[in-house]
């Protein structure tokens, strides 16, 4: 079942396009996850950066975890 909610999400952006979106528990959780992922990506991934943002999104449940289907503009 899909629902529309406002959530904090970590967005992986490459060349100006969002390539991955993951909902988080709030801004502090988002920033913590961003730090961990940014360290793991390393400096050699040119053009990829992470951003924490409050978005309105279509969410669905997949194997017990909430996932973002798309961002509502």
Kindly estimate the percentage of residues that lie in beta strands according to DSSP: over 45%
How much helix, percentage-wise, in residues?
10-25%
Taking the alpha carbons of the first and last residues, their distance comes to: 20 Å
Largest sheet: 4 strands, antiparallel
Overall geometric form: globular
Q: Mind telling me the C-alpha Rg?
A: 13 Å
Following the backbone from N to C, one meets helices and strands in this order, namely EEHEE
Provide the low-confidence segments as ranges.
none
Instruction: Order the strands across the largest sheet as they lie in space.
Output: 2-1-3-4
Oligomer: single chain
Number of helices: 1
Tell me how many strands there are: 4
Going by helix content, strand content and strand pairing, the class is: alpha+beta
| Overall average residue pLDDT | 91
Description:
With 73 residues, this protein is an alpha+beta fold. It has a domain of 44 residues. Helix content is 21%, strand content 56%. Strands 2-1-3-4 form a 4-stranded antiparallel beta sheet. A hairpin with a 2-residue loop joins strand 3 and strand 4.
In short:
With 73 residues, the protein is α+β, with helices and mostly antiparallel strands. It has one helix at residues 27-41, and strands spanning 3-14, 17-23, 48-62, 65-71.
What tags apply to this protein structure?
alpha+beta; 4 strands; 73 residues; single chain; 1 helix
Topology:
Elements: E1 3-14, E2 17-23, H1 27-41, E3 48-62, E4 65-71
């Amino acid at each position: 079942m899909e629902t529309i909610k406002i959530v904090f999400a970590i967005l992986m952006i490459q060349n100006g396009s969002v390539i991955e979106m993951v909902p988080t528990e709030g801004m502090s959780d988002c920033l913590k996850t961003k730090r961990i992922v940014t360290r793991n990506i390393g400096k050699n991934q040119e053009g990829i950066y992470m951003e924490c943002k409050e978005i309105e999104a279509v969410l669905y449940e997949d194997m017990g975890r909430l996932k973002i289907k798309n961002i509502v503009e």
